[in-house]
Automatic annotation (TrEMBL):
Signal peptide per UniProt: 1-26
UniProt entry tagged with the keyword Signal: yes
UniProt entry keywords in alphabetical sequence: Signal
Claim: Signal is one of the keywords in the record: yes
Superkingdom per UniProt: Bacteria
Protein name: DUF2271 domain-containing protein
Species lineage: Bacteria, Pseudomonadati, Pseudomonadota, Alphaproteobacteria, Rhodobacterales
InterPro entries in the record: DUF2271
Any Pfam family the entry gives: DUF2271
Amino acid sequence: MTTLSQVLTASTALAGALVLPGLAEARQVTLTTELANYGGDGAYLAFYVTDASGKYMGSLWMSGGRSKYYRHLSGWEQASGGDPAEVAGITGASVGQGQTLTLTLDLADSLFDAGYVLHVDAAVEHMRDSPDEIAVPLTAAGVSAKGGTYIAKLSYKS
């Protein structure tokens, strides 16, 4: 299995809305996304956060650097308005089937156990799009969740 790793800092990973005014405390979170063997090209993945009411708070990471394909990440596009500036500086290569993407992020403590939700949209060329492939609450305890079409498993821990 191939592992792709990316270390991000709060200033880049929390893209605008997630850098809350007066942010005093943050925790380092390791997010691991294992892709299934789905029989296609590399997956574009959009990682973003919404609040308890579903309001978009910000993007954490975008796997796949060609913005013309972002429209296929329809949950992210609808939430963010599809603005490529939302992921400026926080993009990387698409992730191949069977690979694991590991991200290390600094997230505000105030995001945990407060109703915020981590969403992951997935899309693969010539295959169907998968908005909200995974949506899990941000909790201090962490999460391990089964994916859908392209993601076998997503987990995070702090």
